[in-house]
Amino acid sequence: MTVAVAGSGAFGTAMAAALARKGPVILWSRSADQVADIQANRCNSARLPGIDLPEGLSATADFAALRTAEVILLAVPMQQLRHLLTQHGDLLMDRRLVACCKGIELNTGLGPVAVIAETLPAATAALLTGPSFAAEIARGLPTALTLACADADAGEMLQQQLSTPSLRLYRTTDTTGAELGGALKNVIAIACGAVIGAGLGNSARAALMTRGYAEMLRMAAALGARPDTLAGLSGFGDLTLTCTSEQSRNYRLGLSIGRGDDFDPSITVEGAATARAVAASAQARGIDMPITKSVVALLDKKQTLTELVSQLLTRSLKEE
Ligand SMILES: NC(=O)C1=CN([C@@H]2O[C@H](COP(=O)(O)OP(=O)(O)OC[C@H]3O[C@@H](n4cnc5c(N)ncnc54)[C@H](O)[C@@H]3O)[C@@H](O)[C@H]2O)C=CC1
Ligand SMILES: O=C(CO)COP(=O)(O)O
């Protein structure tokens, strides 16, 4: 079986490297320079500097090379997924597609599996998500992830195909829960970074993680997701990782806001668009998500962190 990965960013390259240790993997990049770098130096210097890529990984800038692949991982940022699917729909339309994005589409409020299902209904749509930093996966460090696919048989097959000795995949058919966990934890990570950056302390971070998790559960319940999915790797697991590590770009954006520093806008930070999409969806559904709403106000510079923290603390007192 040939696996392909579309998108040669940090995560796409990392997954291609991990899977290439057990069989051939084709990594497609829209950048001819990056393909040349990988072919010449066996390294993606821009996204995963210092990490040697295995020989089983071949890079190409020609999307048609993915024709031989039965399973294709889609490793582009969430807001680019629909464009990728539409642009290459002829080839992708009947494949097993595994989105690796963690986010909610801004204009539609849909997660990655729903975007695949809407755009290419004949494809099998799955999601790979959970606590994992690209550089650690690429180095072969032990990692556990969630593979979500509504079709239980296809999900089991993908679980087998994409697990490796260092990458242990659990499976679920609850794609909505897995989408929401991976998307919403990024928003909470921005909030956590902001309070740590501003020196407000670890207790404040723990409060945000816990009450943020309560927001995740409320949205999940409203959308019919299973609470146990949110308690798993794709929800609680990834929330823990992302809210506590400076390897996370979402957390680092928060840190820079809290410290009053600039942040490089070219860095992929999924939580920013997702916060806006989720806040709008929560408002339309009447779901209380004060932390998510505060993150939007912070990103839009509508209110200061001091004002927002004070507002959160002085809301009417209630049962936990
Ligand atoms: N970096 C990480 O540790 C992890 C990332 N993810 C998720 O993976 C997704 C991708 O993130 P990264 O790879 O880290 O981002 P990245 O910023 O390193 O790479 C994104 C890649 O997508 C490519 N791209 C963007 N739009 C495209 C398009 N329309 N067509 C083709 N290629 C396009 C860019 O050229 C770039 O190579 C995100 O949703 C992220 O949340 C998930 C787990 C871990
Ligand atoms: O999703 C991730 C960890 O599981 C990566 O987090 P960032 O996108 O914040 O870097």
Automatic annotation (TrEMBL):
Substrate binds at K102, R249, N250. NAD(+) binds at G7, S8, G9, A10, F11, G12, A134, R249. The active site is at K185 (proton acceptor). Signal peptide: none annotated. It is found in: Cytoplasm. Sn-glycerol 3-phosphate binds at K102, G130, S132, K185, D238, S248, R249, N250. Residues 174-309 form the Glycerol-3-phosphate dehydrogenase NAD-dependent C-terminal domain. Residues 3-153 form the Glycerol-3-phosphate dehydrogenase NAD-dependent N-terminal domain. It is an enzyme of class 1 (oxidoreductase). The keyword Cell membrane does not apply. GO terms for biological process: carbohydrate metabolic process; glycerol-3-phosphate biosynthetic process; glycerol-3-phosphate catabolic process; glycerophospholipid metabolic process; phospholipid biosynthetic process. GO terms for cellular component: cytosol. Gene3D superfamilies: N-(1-d-carboxylethyl)-l-norvaline Dehydrogenase, domain 2, NAD(P)-binding Rossmann-like Domain. Catalyzes the reduction of the glycolytic intermediate dihydroxyacetone phosphate (DHAP) to sn-glycerol 3-phosphate (G3P), the key precursor for phospholipid synthesis. PANTHER family: GLYCEROL-3-PHOSPHATE DEHYDROGENASE (PTHR11728), GLYCEROL-3-PHOSPHATE DEHYDROGENASE [NAD(+)] 2, CHLOROPLASTIC (PTHR11728:SF1). Belongs to the NAD-dependent glycerol-3-phosphate dehydrogenase family. This is Glycerol-3-phosphate dehydrogenase [NAD(P)+]. It comes from Pseudooceanicola lipolyticus. The gene is gpsA.
